[in-house]
Design goal:
The complex is a heterodimer of chains A (276) and B (639). In chain A, 38% of the residues lie in helices and 0% in strands. With 276 residues, chain A is an all-alpha fold. In chain A, helix 9 crosses helix 10. In chain B, the strands form two sheets. Chain B has a two-stranded antiparallel sheet. Chain B has a two-stranded antiparallel sheet with strand order 3-4. The longest helix of chain B has 37 residues. Chain B is globular. The two termini of chain B are 51 Å apart. Classes of the chains: A mainly alpha (276), B mainly alpha (639). Chains A and B meet through helix 1 of A and helix 9, helix 12, helix 13, helix 19 and helix 21 of B.
């Protein structure tokens, strides 16, 4: 019996698609549901926040898409979170663990852990879009990873709605219940020197800050302070600490510098010194 | 059986049913209670009154009903998402075909115009015949998609309109112009002068590309929104158009459309080859299939490079989205993609090797085929190796971890990038051997040219393998950048070797190419390739759209419908398969209609052209040999 050509072609088409469909059934099958709204209430305890925070980190927060917890070897996309509760207070001089973690969640690209690349989105904005209370829970959970959780529903969280973005002045005062940064030789000095007045709303560019504060008048060859160019290549945390411990009197500055501005300036100096 | 008896039984049944119905209605009326005090004219039973009251209450409720804008509407059984997914995919497949075919039809027509060879003109016309029905189907599915969006996702569609309404009028106008260009290009084939006709083809391609660019702006905005505030309010339509993935998708789609269109046109040629009755028809459709496949594979080779660009833009827009694609919910999809692309490479190489059988002098390359096959297979296997596999506890213990001690090394990007680049290089070598079959270079520097080509291949392979191995010893941020030198070296090697080959083969002696004398199963390979290309488009369309997960517009408009979840890959592949099969049923209709149109005077011209003596070597078809009249006796041996 002669098989019609159309039938042969149909068999080829059906068998090919059936094969590819079969391959599609062999791979892991996972249905990803949209994140559910987290139930938060004012009566939640710290322990409740830790539990809820864990759920958010594993679900709505999408944190584990990039971060790992407890991975010790092999390539890592973003820093492993094990022990972050104890590390957080030591990352940046003058910042408590709560302030540091809050900063990494709201402004994740302000400070990049050495060896990693920027790329984390602010978690309070879409597509992740955590609420301030949910972020409070995440901070409590992250504190619990190697540290002692202290966050309550009443803890003031920097950047949260109703809270002013922390200046270096506010950063110097640890939030309620948080672990203060250890006092080191460079970092012990209060950063109030660079924060005499309220920070302006719009962040100024590093170049504008250098000009505004006339940094080059002291930081130049033949002057008592090291030239700006010599600062190039130093680490961001070191420069930030140096900025916080700046010996100049507050009156030297025409306006205060926000933490974000100070960080941007430290990054700029680390990369380019005083150059544009 | 007596027909009258059957008819009588049916009539009796109908009459019986009508009688029973009348009796029931009458009895119901009589059994209803009627008040003895009512006026005889008001023969309203309490039941009738209750029904009237109910209807009146409903009418009153309807009048006072407030207008509420629906956010979603549902399609029964399959749901709104699957319905719109399938319609959008069918629209896209036909649109891709309608955009791609004019591109290479115009090039082929231009070659015919420059070489004065009527066969190229006939071939271009044959390709164009497929367009008119496909264009109608594209428009039909486009309209269906629009209406379904408005009906099923009214709120989201309204939002898209608020951002993109300034693009609608240009789109409609361009569509109008495309219809004008397309039909005048097809129907005016023998009416206009060649130059005017070529200009019509240029216009058709420009307008078609512009239409695609506009539509791409809408869909890429959904992935990587731009030009709107955080709350979604429009700031600038142009910025919304010019979002992160707009241009990468534009370029990727142009190339992919050509690959897909070439493969479907080759499938049409294969279909006609199998139906062909005369050696002339077989020669013509064999050649057409070869050209279609040549177009498809030529476009397919640079496609991964466009894919890299698109992926890097996705990462630049959102690392989260990028990681969802490559390391999250969709990572296993790329194993399926690897299987598909592996099948494409195997099929394309196999077709080329079969094609060597119709060229005298190709025997000297036969021994190389087994090595090429080995390389293609090994690269395919490496590419399809998953990094981690689903294992039992025992298996994990035996492996000493989640990754296999050996295969785990092959499942990472360093190995996969190396494999795919070697795969591309190997396929290019196959193509080069096919091109060389039956040709003896006449230039005195041919040995040097061969040596240079060999060195280029060796150096390129060394670069690709070096970066592949080095990638294991550096951080991810450094490793990811290694794909650039790997890709560039392969691309440059292909350009350099082709350039040398073109000059080396000028004035080469050409042995006979017996078009039409290729085994029938080579035609089924072409059909398999077309199905695979189509399936691949469906799969990659799914991942592009699925990356938004539970967002209509990523990070701006959330999907609150019951279909907001991301389905399993198994489910997605089933939807893709059904859509692909539907497409092939419809494209079969297009092929059939096109074959009806081929029985006219032009068909005679084609057959007459194939009876001519071989064309000179300088006017050979791209990448192939000359097109002589086939030898029926040799054909009988092969088929």
């Amino acid at each position: 019996m002669k098989v019609p050509i159309v039938l042969k072609i149909a068999v080829i088409a059906v068998l090919s698609t059936a094969f590819y469909t079969y391959v599609g059934q062999l791979v892991p099958q996972k249905e990803v549901q949209p994140p559910e709204e987290t139930k938060m209430s004012a009566t939640m305890t710290t322990a409740d926040l830790v539990t809820t925070g864990k759920t958010i980190v594993e679900g709505k927060g999408s944190c584990l898409t990039c971060h790992t917890i407890g991975k010790t070897s092999g390539p890592m996309r973003f820093p492993d979170l094990a022990g972050v509760g104890s590390r957080a207070a030591t990352r940046i001089a003058g910042m408590s663990d709560i302030q540091y973690i809050a900063d990494t969640l709201y402004n994740p690209n302000d400070f990049i852990v050495p060896g990693f690349s920027p790329g984390m989105p602010p978690v309070n904005k879409p597509p992740i879009g955590l609420t301030d209370d949910e972020i409070r829970a995440v901070i409590a959970y992250l504190q619990s990873l190697g540290g002692t959780p202290t966050v309550t529903m009443q803890t003031a969280i920097p950047y949260a709605a109703g809270s002013a973005a922390p200046t270096t002045e506010t950063a110097a005062a640890p939030a309620e219940g948080s672990t203060a940064a250890p006092a080191g030789a460079e970092v012990a000095a209060a950063p109030a020197a660079v924060a005499a007045a309220a920070a302006p709303a719009a962040p100024r560019a590093p170049d504008a800050l250098l000009t505004q504060f006339q940094c080059a008048s002291c930081h130049a060859a033949g002057k008592p302070a090291p030239a700006l160019e010599q600062l190039s290549g130093k680490g961001e945390p070191e420069l930030l600490a140096g900025l916080a411990a700046h010996p100049a009197t507050p009156s030297h500055f025409e306006a205060a510098m926000s933490l974000a501005e100070a960080r941007a300036l430290a990054r700029h100096l680390a990369r380019k010194g005083g150059g544009a | 059986m007596n027909k009258r008896l059957v008819l009588g039984a049916v009539v009796a049944l109908v009459v019986g049913l009508a009688g029973v119905s009348w009796l029931a209605r009458t009895m119901n009326d009589r059994l209803s209670y009627r008040s003895p005090n009512r006026v005889s004219g008001e023969q309203v039973t309490p039941r009738e009154q209750a029904l009237r009251d109910q209807a009146e209450a409903q009418a009153q409720a309807d009048k006072s009903k407030k207008y509420e804008e629906a956010e979603y509407r549902r399609v029964p059984v399959i749901g709104s998402r699957v319905a719109i997914w399938m319609v959008a995919q069918l629209h896209l497949l036909f649109a891709a075909f309608v955009l791609a075919v004019p591109l290479f039809a115009l090039i082929i027509e231009f070659i015919g115009y420059k070489t004065k060879d009527p066969r190229y003109d006939a071939l271009a016309y044959e390709f164009t015949k497929l367009l008119s029905t496909s264009f109608s189907l594209t428009a039909t599915f486009g309209a269906a998609l629009t209406f379904m969006l408005i009906a099923l996702y009214p709120k989201f569609t309204n939002y898209l309109m608020s951002v993109f309404s300034p693009t609608f009028l240009p789109y409609v106008l361009l569509f109008f112009f495309e219809a004008g260009f397309l039909y005048s290009y097809y129907y005016g084939w023998h009416s206009f002068s060649k130059r005017v006709h070529l200009l019509l083809g240029v216009g058709l391609n420009l307008v078609g590309t512009a239409i695609m660019f506009i539509a791409n702006a809408w869909l890429t905005f959904m992935m990587t929104p731009n030009g709107v505030s955080e709350a979604g309010a429009k700031i600038s339509t142009w910025e919304a158009v010019r979002n992160y993935t707009w241009m990468p998708i534009n370029i990727h789609r142009i190339i992919a459309n050509v690959a897909f269109g070439g493969s479907v046109a080759a499938a049409y040629a294969a279909f006609q080859f199998l139906r062909a009755k005369t050696p002339e028809e077989k020669a013509h459709y064999d050649w057409m299939g070869y050209i279609g496949n040549f177009v498809a594979i030529s476009a397919f080779l640079p496609l991964p490079f466009a894919g890299y660009w698109l992926a890097s833009e996705i990462y630049a827009f959102s690392q989260t989205m990028g990681l969802t694609m490559m390391g999250g919910a969709f990572s296993w999809l790329f194993i399926i993609q690897a299987v598909l692309i592996g099948c494409l490479f195997l099929g394309a190489n196999y077709y080329l090797w079969l094609g060597m059988g119709r060229i005298d002098g190709a025997e000297r390359f036969r021994p190389a085929i087994k090595y090429l096959l080995g390389l293609v297979t090994v690269c395919f296997m490496i590419w399809a190796t998953p990094h981690s596999i689903i294992s039992t506890v025992d298996e994990v213990q035996k492996m000493g971890g989640a990754n296999h001690p050996m295969l785990g090394f092959l499942g990472v990007m360093s190995a996969k990038n190396t494999a795919v680049n070697i795969l591309i290089l190997t396929t290019y070598v196959s193509f080069l051997l096919y091109r060389r079959s039956g040709r003896i270079p006449g230039v005195p520097w041919a040995p040097l040219g061969n040596l240079i080509q060999f060195v280029i291949f060796a150096v390129t392979a060394a670069i690709v393998i070096f970066f592949g191995i080095y990638g294991y010893f550096v951080e991810a941020a450094v490793r990811i950048k290694f794909s650039v030198p790997q890709v560039l070296s392969v691309l440059l090697a292909m350009i350099a070797v082709t350039t040398i080959d073109v000059f080396m083969m000028r004035g080469a002696k050409q042995t006979e190419v017996r078009w039409g004398q290729i085994p029938n199963h080579a035609q089924y390979v072409l059909i398999f390739l077309a199905v695979t290309f189509t399936w691949l488009m469906g799969l990659m369309g799914y991942v592009r759209s699925g990356l938004r997960q539970h967002w209509h517009v990523y990070g701006v408009i959330r999907d609150n419908s019951p279909d907001a979840f991301t389905p399993t890959l198994g489910f997605a592949t089933r939807v893709v398969s059904v859509t692909v099969l539907l497409f092939f049923v419809l494209i079969g209709l297009v092929f059939w209609l096109a074959s009806l149109a081929g029985k006219g005077a032009h068909h005679g011209a084609v057959e007459a052209a194939h009876g001519e003596p071989p064309m000179p070597a300088a006017t050979q078809p791209p990448g192939g040999g000359a097109l002589p009249a086939p030898s029926p006796s040799a054909e009988a041996d092969l088929v």
